[in-house]
Amino acid sequence: MDGKTSMTVADAVDYKGFPADKSKTGGWVPAALILGIEICERLSTMGIAVNLVTYLGGVMHLPSSSSANIVTDFMGTCFLLCLLGGFLADSFLGRYKTIAIFAIVQTLGTGMLAITTELPQLRPPPCHSRHDIDCVQANGFQMGILYLALYLIALGTGGLKSSVSGFGTDQFDEKDENEKTQMTFFFNRFFFFISIGTLTAVTVLVYIQDEVGRSLAYGICSISMLIAIVIFLSGTRRYRYKKSSGSPIVQIFQVIGAAIRKRKLNLPYDVNMLYEDSPEASRIHHSDQFRFLDKAAIVGEGDLECRSNYSGPNPWKLCSVTKVEEVKMMGRLLPIWATTIIFWTTYAQMITFSVEQASTMDRKIGHFQIPAGSLTVFFVAAILITLAVYDRLIMPLWKKWKGKPGFSSLQRIAIGLVLSTIGMGVASLAEMKRLSVAKSFGRSSTNLPISVFLLIPQFILVGAGEAFIYTGQLDFFITQSPKGMKTMSTGLFLTTLSLGFFVSSFLVSVIKKVTGSSGSQGWLADNINNGRLDCFYGLLAVLGIVNLVVYLICAVWYKPDQKAKCVVQMEVRFNGNGEEKC
């Protein structure tokens, strides 16, 4: 009987609802099937995003600032919808159904985009240059169909990203030492495969878009996604499924609602008088921050009266100290969350204005011309190289010197912010050089005699910054969040990407309005040769410096309670260094 029990996973079931048998479910094979969906999602989303600005300008004849905003709004919506996908997965559908449904939605979106870019009725008449007087912009109907396709893709991406990593880790038993080690490698390979998918998108897919046809490239995205769905569904019998404990968003509103309801009550002199019904092993130590929320745990008149279904007190009126502390822990994450948004605003420039810059420069290597969107290959390469150097060189040296396995999550975030800020400063200098060539050679020219490799430093710096900040953020938001809110915490991390893109769109709109006048289009002109993109990059560098100072203050302020930290410690850390000891 004991042998049979050891072969099952305590908190997981198979596709029939029976306890999951370790020998028949879970492990690397099902996890690999799930990774296939993520690779194809990255291939589709990034293959579209990195080269969309050239399509909007060159084919739909939109101004550069409008094109950039459409791209950043699209990417921002992708990550913002992760919250919707996570909510549906936690509350109603479960991760398996969420992945399947939203993967189909994304497939429909990429298929529709392939048709949209193929039909001549859905794009304006071609012209020699979008800056020509007789060049007609896309009309409302044409843009409406394009938007519909793009936001179907965004909806699919949001639903997928919220559940893929979580469903992948569900295939491993954290209580089994062997499987726990395997889960460590899953996290590392998950990020590696995301980068591989992006690398393929910015090289092969972008080349097909520019040299063969966009409809073919987008059709490849749709077909690859369809194949990934079939492969994903083929593993249905082998997956492990974990039951949802409900949406943590509801718990947050319950604590806040209960605290507001009891706002006029005084807190007891002894915190032990506050309500607590959680098991001793899972309780979180009371903290003094956000004391207003403690009022949610004050036992009021009638709060402990028995309810007909014996389910305990009404959670909208009385919450346990542990549940209050879980909400406090999420609240402590918010300053760090807010100060990482500016990085993704900087990142947005790498797939918008930097691609616009590249399209005006000499991109030839011999007889081969590099597609403007493919220049982001240096960005992805910088990520992969930085991760390799950090894993194989920096971490061992740091462990010998400091006795710690690499930088802390907050330190990695700080390094990412520094690198991206320097990257924007370098980008400003590079643009000054490009504009000087444009001034002497002719601002109307679309092929300036200056090498595109001048832009490589800004791609490398921001790419290296992403390697640090992405892993640092993911590590921080997972390890410092309550156990029951890790899915939501991951979604919170992804919203920094979303808001970064939206902030970029907001800044572009504001700069366009403030610096433009009747006689000039300002910093962000329709033709970037007539603008001052260097000033815009310089502004982002200054904002980066200010944000870095605020971040350092927030990082010093953030001092999690050690007892609480022990309760929610991460058994398997993202960087693969095992259990974090208290």
Automatic annotation (TrEMBL):
Membrane topology annotation: Multi-pass membrane protein
GO CC entries: membrane
Keyword line: Membrane, Transmembrane, Transmembrane helix
Subcellular location: Membrane
Leader sequence residues: none
One Pfam family from the record: PTR2
Transmembrane segments: 74-93, 100-120, 140-160, 190-209, 215-235, 333-350, 370-390, 410-430, 450-470, 491-511, 536-558
Coiled-coil zones: none
Major localization class: membrane
Protein family (similarity comment): Belongs to the major facilitator superfamily. Phosphate:H(+) symporter (TC 2.A.1.9) family.
Protein name, entry field: Uncharacterized protein
Source organism phylogeny: Eukaryota, Viridiplantae, Streptophyta, Embryophyta, Tracheophyta
